[in-house]
Design brief:
Elements: E1 2-5, E2 8-14, H1 15-21, E3 30-32, H2 40-46, H3 51-62, H4 68-79, E4 92-94, E5 99-103, H5 114-117, H6 120-131, E6 136-142, H7 146-155, E7 161-168, H8 174-181, E8 188-194, H9 197-208, H10 211-219, E9 222-226, H11 232-251, E10 261-266, H12 271-281, E11 286-293, H13 298-305, E12 307-309, H14 330-337, H15 342-355, E13 357-359, H16 362-371, E14 372-376, H17 379-393, H18 399-415, E15 421-425, H19 433-441, H20 449-460, H21 466-469, E16 481-483, H22 487-495
Parallel strand pairs: 5-15, 6-7, 6-9, 7-8, 8-16, 10-11, 10-15, 11-14
Antiparallel strand pairs: 1-2, 1-3, 4-5, 12-13
Helix pairs in contact: 1-6, 3-4, 3-11, 4-6, 11-12, 17-18, 17-19, 19-20
């Protein structure tokens, strides 16, 4: 299995090189040259297996330069040892006869990013051993909230690595910020930036492709890589849990082998739903992919019209991990929709950079709308959805999962499609306790995050996740902030390199 750049199809590397580099030297993203097929017989067999065995099967199709033992070691290291509070890792909860919630937040940081970021350090360590021996890997991350903490937790004190995380100062929740700024570990650093997530993300991508910075790191025995979903090693583990969800539906007798399911994903950077698209391309019978957005509904508009237009107001919402206007992983989908036309992708990305918008052709738009449905909602509707789901089902959801549930309801209303549906739940409701509590109360909550956590637990009879229960007692280690144009200097300072 080889991987090629979305901006230069001739640039082909094996999995280990794609994971170590993180991003292609031409600023493109690595995608598999072809999609391995998984037969329905094998999927049916996987229904009798646990999550780790399912992961080994899927990863072995993509990481063909890894040995079977290396893959097993990575998977068992990531998902073993009691790191996940639920033994199933990604359990399914039934809402009604058609809807099932895929809980992806039972890892150490209570967000779906753990499903990939507990595995990535193992994949990267093996990959670096194959490609860049004796170099320190510098992990550079831009986060809208959950990726930062999950990456910090995954890479803390991992030998031969150092991780630097940038987050928008006013663009994450109090809980998300505390999770990052109190992070333990000798090889971790965190810095806020004045701006939004798109500023942080574009700043990090600029640093990645800066040849001067690359040479400075090389002179000090260092090499950049990424823990964002632009890194193939971040994206490929996410494919697993869609297969796992289908297998669990088979095991429960909710589906028969070959039956279709729909998937609903709340997404901003497009990586999580792209993983479901990849699962579909591998043979998983997914009928429709429902893309759920908050008020920053650039993806909804794109899927409906074929035009991606960044010329719009950026909104800070109660679902901050989706407050994004530059969806990096969409570039991968554009490459596939265009028939692997790297020149077209370059043209579209140039238009986005210069004009803040692009429009795909009718053929690509037709393919897009065949697979995807899009819906969005604002904060008011998000809160109404949290309240309605709890009152109707006795089930508590966070502000991102609520956007997905509402998108699912919109899809049902518009199509009448009652296909069994998996709704990706991306975070514990206790990561956003004030917003969730105010939704249940139907009004503003005048309390701090930690009081809200206790009140939410008492009100709903649900348990506070252990990683969040102790957060208020931890010491803040990182309080620095910078302007976007100074991110390069911050990187040098954090690494102890003279600019």
């Amino acid at each position: 299995m080889l991987y090629q750049s979305t901006r230069n199809s001739a640039a082909k590397v094996e999995a280990a090189a794609a994971i170590t580099q993180g991003i292609s030297r031409d600023a493109g993203l690595f995608v598999p040259e072809s999609f391995p097929r998984i037969s329905m017989d094998e999927i049916a067999a996987m229904a009798g297996e646990g999550y780790t065995d399912r992961a080994k099967r899927i990863l072995s199709r993509y990481l063909t330069d890894f040995t079977e033992q290396e893959i097993a070691s990575c998977v068992e290291g990531a998902y073993g040892g009691g790191k996940f509070a639920d033994p199933k890792k990604a359990p399914l909860r039934k809402l009604d006869d058609s809807a099932f919630v895929l809980e992806l937040w039972h890892g150490p940081t209570c967000a779906f990013k753990d499903m990939a970021l507990q595995l990535l350090p193992y994949l990267l360590t093996v990959s670096a051993g194959k490609t860049v021996k004796d170099k320190k890997i510098v992990i550079l991350v831009a986060t809208s909230g959950d990726t930062g903490k999950a990456a910090l937790e995954g890479f803390k004190d991992v030998g031969g690595t150092q991780i630097l995380v940038f987050y928008p100062r006013d663009g994450v929740s109090v809980m998300q910020k505390l999770q990052m700024t109190t992070q333990e570990g000798e090889n971790v650093s965190v810095c806020a930036i004045e701006g939004n997530f798109d500023d942080a993300q574009s700043g990090v991508k600029a640093i990645f492709t800066d040849r001067e910075i690359e040479e400075k790191l090389k002179a000090h025995g260092m090499l950049f890589s990424s823990a964002n979903s632009i890194n193939w090693g971040r994206l490929v583990p996410q494919i697993v849990y869609y297969f796992s969800a289908y297998c669990d539906l088979l095991a429960k007798g909710e589906l028969q082998p070959g039956d279709s399911m729909n998937v609903v994903v709340p997404t901003g950077n497009f990586g999580n739903i792209l993983a479901a698209y990849y699962a579909k391309e591998m043979g998983l019978p997914i009928a429709k992919l429902v893309c759920a957005s908050n008020e920053n509904n650039i993806l909804t508009d794109f899927i409906r019209t074929g035009t991606y237009d960044k010329n719009r107001r950026f909104v800070t919402t109660i679902s901050p991990s989706m407050d994004i206007l530059i969806s990096s992983n969409l570039e991968r989908l554009l490459y596939h929709l265009s028939g692997n036309d790297d020149r077209m992708v370059v043209s579209l990305m140039d238009a986005l950079q210069k004009e803040n918008q692009y429009t795909i052709n009718d053929e690509m738009k037709g393919k897009l709308q065949k697979d995807f449905f899009a819906a969005c909602c604002d904060d008011h509707i998000t809160k109404q959805t949290i309240k309605q789901v709890f009152e109707q089902y006795g089930y508590l959801i966070d502000t991102h999962t609520a956007v997905a549930v509402n998108a699912y309801w919109q899809y049902i209303e518009q199509t009448g499609d009652k296909t069994k549906t998996v709704i990706a739940s991306t975070a514990s409701p206790y990561k956003f306790p004030v917003s969730v509590l105010s939704a249940l109360n139907g009004g503003e909550v005048k309390t701090d995050e930690f009081e809200a956590v206790k009140t939410l637990s008492a009100k709903t009879g649900t348990q506070i996740p252990a990683p969040l229960a102790s957060l208020g007692e931890k010491q803040v280690r990182f309080e620095s902030a910078c302007e976007r144009q100074n991110m390069k200097q911050v990187v040098f300072d954090m690494l102890g390199i003279e600019a």
